[in-house]
Amino acid sequence: MVKEFGEHGYWALVLGGSSGLGFASAKKLAAHGMNICIVHRNSRTEMEEVSSHFAEIRALGVDLATFNLDVTSSDKRAGMLENLKEILSAQQKIRCLIHSIAKGSLKPMVAEDDATLGNDDFEITMQNMAFSLYDWTTAIFKAGLFAGDARVISFTSEGSRKAMKHYAAVSAAKAALEAISRSIALEFAPYGIRSNCIQAGVTDTRSLRMIPGSAELVEHSLKRNPFKRLTLPEDVANVVYLLCKDEAAWINGTVIPVDGGES
Fold this sequence. Notes:
Layout: E1 10-15, H1 20-31, E2 35-40, H2 47-58, E3 64-68, H3 74-87, E4 93-99, H4 119-142, E5 146-156, H5 168-187, E6 193-200, H6 206-209, H7 214-224, H8 233-244, E7 255-258
Parallel strand pairs: 1-2, 1-4, 2-3, 4-5, 5-6, 6-7
Helix pairs in contact: 1-2, 1-8, 3-4, 4-5
């Protein structure tokens, strides 16, 4: 396998890279020689599985830095970037920021017995799944850590424009995420930063299984997809890799469906 990123000393900073789309993307980029920094939030009971994922990346022969922290904390973010500066050599820069945070409320708007969606639920979901993209982009930019040709990639869903039960807060966050990504694409372009969203098809991840009625979503997707299968994390990771290549430098400000034609 060609490790084209290795010769440049590139790094990818992955927010939410311990599982799902984030981990698959980190592993794909590492296989092509990109060093990886993963910011994640996991409990002690989850760390055995998470550590095995990290071992898979290290086995690919790249450098790996990991930070277990709250991505919405400005103090933690500043401290982590200072630590990363000490890890990177003078020639090494961040080629790619991947936003794969899946922390949000899945409460219903109306329910007789269960708790319903509140304003604080919207705020927490928006902060984690949308506003944090801007926070991290600007923090990395101000720290001078982006490469001259850098890529900001975030994961959205069809729910950004389509109503789904229990998905109102996440739907609002995904719509905001896309808007923020477009604005990054416009305002950071003079500094060599490209920004795009990937709209993944229905993928069997832990985040999907947390959605009430996810089994019905899976069944519907299998019927609707031209290839009669779900999207795999590796399908999404392949497009992340393509967007990080030099040849993708003219792709900017878009939402790219990666779903085999499902949508």
